[in-house]
Amino acid sequence: MTSPYDAPMRIALDEARAAVEHGDVPVGAVIVDSQGTVVAAAHNRKEQLGDPTAHAEILAIRAAAEALGGWRLEGHTLVVTLEPCPMCAMAVVWGRLDRIVYGAADLKAGAAWSLFNIPQDGRLNHRCELIDGVLGDEAATLLAAFFAERRCAGALLRDPTIVLPPCRWVRDGRGGRADEGGSLENCWAGFTGPVGSNPTPSAATIP
To answer: What element of type H or E holds 190?
Structure first.
């Protein structure tokens, strides 16, 4: 089923891929106005900037406020590849955005249904609509591939003699990732201990 937010979510997915280039977790976000026009776009830059607050949502909200000349973002929507954390969910409330649209659920830190529901907490002075699962499988695949590759690298650092199946992954042109020479499951083969899992296709388990 298509969504009116598919197009901006694809832009957010492109932003998420850009985060990988500098070692950041692939999360991307865009802010769109009531006509669907993108007014700001950003991706996670926490590692790049050494800033714990440099999440994609925060950077997109800051850019939108600067572009519009004010902090009140009524009539605007945050479209983000991963369910916002408590910090980002609260930033949406402070910015008075109308809604949050996200792709993959974050079962460990999500604050827009998974663990908390900050944007719709009746004790706050602003609430916003929530829409989940938009291109969620693509967003979850991107995240899962990123962490699978990182686990492969970590295993080799711990034991350089270990033989792992090929686990390099490349863009597949459809918003996700395709492995090269092995499957995502093969990337996890040979490991002991928890490697994380996706309880549903659109749920991301972040280490």
So the answer is: none
